[in-house]
């Protein structure tokens, strides 16, 4: 029968030829046929991004969800969220009172999927490689607080940090810190294509067509040693062009489970349906959506223009018309469920007001209407994105202060154009690297930010971010974090819009769906199994 499951977090706050990976296969399991998972994530190798799943380059939730199955990290976020726990490591911890020296000891007899030993020097190679390459995705910035990496023997790794960083254990749980084999990865060059080799719970066989990964087959790695316990021997992940095609495949039984991104209409239908053999699982999510500004662009260089947009946009109406109960208005980059959140945008602008926006523009001497193009990606954040931008266009144009057009592009061209500064205003989403307020602020505001934004605030970069990272108690860090959010609300280099829930739909007989996503939208395929159909 159809039922809706609501999963509550334990702790809140804190994707040419067919390519195959080598590795041992653990046969004879009890999970039966491969579990087939559908996604609308698109994985494309292009001239601009030839190495989409190299850990030193990948920096979006889709590619990370491939790497998290295959490349092992020293730490991992546990099943029920909370503080990261040792994974490739046997133990890790700060060894000084200032949170500037962090040591890890590897598990004994740790091996890559080809049977070769994993050593401390491999960990150092992997971390130093990402820091050396400095890929234009900006993912290397997660390792920016590292000064040097030291090894002692084959099992001990010591990280000497430039400054205190209480969030460092979380960063070691992210794929950019994944351990790769120096035999497979050059130290100063990205690995093109869709090959990936590591020591994670699965090996990858990638089926590629026209430089796009269309199917990823994950097979249990017999050499894996860590805290995860795969409940299946094989999982197939298939990429669909849109949510409708994915939903049809689920209804026909061609796939067993579908994850991001379902349409609002699909979610509502599954929620309302009281019969059938598909279960809807709803989980609180930490995904946010926002507008980003090229503050050097003439159209939005004047702060009052950006402030006026913040004053006009009606988040409640946007969410109600497009996403319904699947999202909530957001008044900060930091979600409301994360420690350190402040409603800074609401505190500054209050309820939407065209009159107040007009006053802001007049006081700054801005000639209206301001002509703008809002850019969005057509295939990365779900089918409702276009409708969302149509609503934003309607609201801004209705004020008489703006003359807005909207333009969509596929992610494979959208993301490179955004990074090159070709868009004045554009829509993005953020799935956290780890569930801490720092990860909703530093990636946008610090040096080498992943958006390549020209906006720079010295107080944020030089004082407030370092101050917040010195506090192991994240409640104590709230003062610095609130100051950052207040500055963002005043300068508006980004404009938060909403925070969303996340959903999985699974056919009866699939177990573990309630654990298949954590709050940071990490896909935990090892949790899936086959049980008895209802």
Automatic annotation (TrEMBL):
InterPro entries: Peptide/Ni-bd, SBP_5, SBP_5_dom. SUPFAM superfamilies: Periplasmic binding protein-like II. One of its GO terms (cellular component) is ATP-binding cassette (ABC) transporter complex. Gene3D superfamilies: Dipeptide-binding Protein, Domain 1 (3.90.76.10), Dipeptide-binding Protein, Domain 3 (3.10.105.10), Periplasmic binding protein-like II (3.40.190.10). It is found in: Cell envelope. It comes from the Bacteria. PROSITE patterns: PROKAR_LIPOPROTEIN. The keyword Transport applies. Residues 83-450 form the Solute-binding protein family domain. Keywords: Signal, Transport. Residues 1-20 form the signal peptide. One of its GO terms (biological process) is peptide transport. GO terms for molecular function: peptide transmembrane transporter activity. Pfam families: SBP_bac_5 (PF00496). Belongs to the bacterial solute-binding protein 5 family. This is Peptide-binding protein. It comes from Streptomyces lacrimifluminis.
